[in-house]
Amino acid sequence: MSLLEVQDLRVTLRQHSTSTRLLRDVSLSMEYGKVLGLVGESGAGKSMVAKAILDLLPKKAVIDKGEIKFNQNSLLRLSVAERRKLLGKDIALIPQDPMVSLNPVRTIGTHLSEGLTHHLGITKAEARKQSIALLDEVLIRDPERVIDAFSHELSGGMRQRVLIAMAFSCSPKLIIADEPTTALDVTVQKRVLSLIRMMQRKQNTSLLFITHDLGVVAKICDQVAIMYEGRVLENTTAKQLFHSPGHDYTRALIDAMPRFDQPDKPILPVSRKLKEQLQAETREVDQATYND
Amino acid sequence: MSLKQFLQRLLLALPTLFGVSLVVFFLMRVVPGDPIAMMTPPGATEADVAQLRALYGLDKPIITQYVIWLGALFQGDLGTSISLRQDVFSLILERMPATLELAFLSTMIAIALCLILSLAGAYFRDRIIPRAVDAIASTAQAVPDFLWGLIFILLLGVAWPLFPISGRINPRLDHDLVSQFYLFESLIKLDFSLALELLRHLLLPAIALALPMTGIVTRLLKVSLEETWKQDYITMARARGFSRWYILRKEALRNALIPTVTLGGVQLTFLLGGTVLIEKLFSYPGIGNMAIGAVIQRDLPLIQGLILTFAVMFIVINLLIDLSYSWLNPRMRHG
Amino acid sequence: MADATAHYPSPWRDAGLVTGSLIVISFFAIAILAHWISPHDPLEQDLISNLLPPFWVDQHDPAFLLGTDSLGRDLLSRVIHGARIALTVAVLAAGFAAVLGTVMGLIAGFYGGWIDSFISRLVDIWMSFPAVLLSIVLVAVLGTGLHSVVIAIGIIDWTRFCRVIRAETKVQREQDYVAAGRALGLTGPAIILKEILPNLLPVLMTLFCLEMGIAVVVEAILSFVGLSLSSDAPTWGGLIEEGRQYVHEAWWVMLIPMLCILTLVIALNACGEGIRRVYDPVMHK
User: Mind listing the pLDDT tens digit for each residue in A66-123?
Assistant: First the structure.
């Protein structure tokens, strides 16, 4: 039985009488406690999938077709209020850029405890206690001081730790991590990644990990979905992916990976020919589904 | 803002005040028209005039006059009003509470209207309400307070006489107020019927004063809220399941207020300047009304005292704006 | 630039601009023809028929279409002559402010550097004073009368022109044709007059219309508080002041000049905004 099921999700951006497909019949499935890597270049629609789940799609983006099931319930059929009850409690987000994802005029403590009081209905004092414990859990030194600090007083890595604490605070069933390390220094990336992994294991949370980095996928993912132009090209286990990639594009991505164990291996970018071929396929798909 | 920073600002205000006093003093000496000639009865002898001049210190060299004036100023002595023949300081002290109450109420109305309008404009995503807010704000801003006052007098004072249009309190009303802060005192004493009577007098002039400021600040605050709404931390809050209203209030408003306070401060000084006219229009017994009388009567000591009073009030407003700015923006608190 | 004008849409299609300018033109016509079209001498008193109501109210006198004031003077004639004073002040004061502000703005925007910072700082300080208070103080210093009203408005409001003209000049001086003018050996003042100023005309016209509206209100305010012309003179502000005293008995004495001010100011704003809509190239992109 799966926790999250995305079925044939089609999203279109309608703007000034032109319409652009953002997601082309995307299907994904996530098991309890597993990590699904969503991989693709920028503009592949990875973040759109996350936005569709989190009810954050842009105003002009319309879901034409498809279904998102969370815990056997259709998210798209829930009312706005019912959906908000899930967000932050059962489904949480770790954002891409920690530098701009914390409110500059509110303290770290407010960020953490407002989620706790809102979703768990505990008192402010209790929420503050739990918040300090959470900060401690994400390995922030001196949580008693940090809790009253503002985000501009913390480094990027610290801020991302706070955001991770916020995401895990209500013990959600699903966490969506949208390229959580891209905006960080290389040295910090590793530590943040292992922290996410550690917390995920500890709480046995399902993790939807969005990235463009196959190296990260190899480290933490159980399942992988490869996306291009809003389509899922391949959906397989991580092991399978690296041993016998099923799609030319996947193979090309693996070839484009820098390998520390083989420093002499040339890094080959995805060839233009392959991309043109994929784009032609996309057009065919669009034409075939034009009248749906 | 730390106490040290606050004291620094306070010290910085001193040279400003000194500059204002200098400008005020010398500006008033180049005024054409002889105030002494105006107050002497026809048929007064040269000696009478000279005596009066000496009485007001107008016979000494101008620098000496300034030093004397400044020295007296520090002792709270602003001279004697020529037209009213009373101590300027106590005259201003007696009239100032009326103006402060008017300006305070007007500011509160402006702030309340700004918040309601801009939050409504940012909250509703349909086409009608945001546009209505824009229309209300531009109208409020386009019509100056003087014309708002006239419109209110004609509509709500004469055509549909809901409100009195002159004075501060019904003169036939018996009351036992001891201070000049009628409204505040009646509220403290929990005398609500008296407070209501005072409010009925205050409401029209206060709204007339508030509207232009409301218009301009609402427009900025609404745009600022819309800009803030695009920030990543708002998206983050939405992803955490908070309602639009909660996010608007708790996450967006304070950030949106930061660029708005500075403009609000300038508008607040304009509002205070506007009391001069509005008090005249509503025959309201404050220092603004007194200022116009003083200018027409060429009552130099009174004009000087009033300009200094307004300067002090402007400095206080700017200080308060500085304070609220650093309260709103934690990045300003240290360093 | 001559070819740039070709892209402007026709000003006749802009409803706001057309209505606004029609109203403004009629006010000007009334002001110019005041002597011939006003039914009475605006100063002629008729104490027997004082505070007569206007034509739409019972007991009006057809000889006084808009009624009379407390001294029995014909309101219509006073309002007509008031338009004359209001528009004279508006044109002169806005002109004064425009010349002062444009010169300062051009200098600041074109030359930049310390002179720019100096003028900008001056503008900032200037604009932080409440205009009404400042104008009352200025008139107190200058003495009452039309000339001081004009000077006061000009001295206070030049900043409105300066700010916008400075910003526009900064944009203009980066344009190709200015560089071309420099390459041809034109000096600073020549470039300003020949290349930059013509391009600023639409902006200037917009500002001028808006400033006239402000001047009309300020003049009314100053004559209302008794710091403009003597109370005999038929100014709109003076009429309002008189109407204020008798507002419960004769509300029309206040209503009529107020409507005149409101109409004229709204029409002037409509003109200004209309010119901006039609001629501002930025808005058409």
Answer: 999 999 999 999 999 999 999 999 999 999 999 999 999 999 999 999 999 999 999 9
Whether A212 maps to a domain, the answer reads yes
Give average pLDDT by consecutive 10-residue segment, chain B, 335 residues: 77 82 76 62 75 74 82 82 88 95 97 96 91 94 93 94 90 83 91 92 96 96 95 95 95 94 90 93 94 86 87 88 87 64
The CATH number of C65-284 is 1.10.3720.10
Round to whole Å and give the CA distance between C27 and B197: 43
Which ipTM score applies to this complex?
0.91
Q: Which chains touch A (3 or more CB pairs under 8 A)?
A: B
Q: Confidence band (pLDDT; 50, 70, 90) for A14?
A: confident
C244 vs B: CB within 8 A: yes
The subunits that touch chain B, with at least 3 C-beta pairs less than 8 Å apart, are A, C
Q: Do chains B and C touch (3 or more CB pairs under 8 A)?
A: yes
From chain B, the residues in CB contact with A100 under 8 A are 231-233
Query: What are the structural domain ranges in chain C?
Result: 65-284
Separation in Å, CA of C219 to nearest CA in chain B: 12
Closest C-alpha to C219, from C164, C268, C277: C268
Q: Chain A residues with CB inside 8 Å of B243's CB?
A: 81, 84
Helices and strands in chain B: count of H runs, count of E runs: 14, 0
Counted domains in chain A: 1
Q: Which residue of A has its CA nearest to B229?
A: A103
Q: Do B153 and C244 touch (CB under 8 A)?
A: yes
Verify whether the Cβ–Cβ distance A163 to B331 is below 8 Å: no
Q: Which two tokens stand for residue C272?
A: 């200004």
Cα dihedral C154, C127, B276, B110, rounded to 10, equals: 140
What's the gap in Å between the CA of C183 and the closest CA on chain B?
A: 43
What integer best gives the mean pLDDT of chain A?
A: 90
> Cα(C216)–Cα(B231) distance, rounded to whole angstroms?
43
Tell me if A122 is assigned to some domain: no
Chain B, nearest residue to A85 by Cα: B241
Q: Of the candidates A237, A171, A282, which has an alpha carbon nearest to the alpha carbon of residue A29?
A: A237
Q: Which residue in this structure is represented by tokens 């209020």?
A: A81
Q: Is residue A129 part of a domain?
A: no
Pick B241's closest partner by Cβ from A84, A97, A102.
Answer: A84
Q: Is A134 domain-assigned? A: no
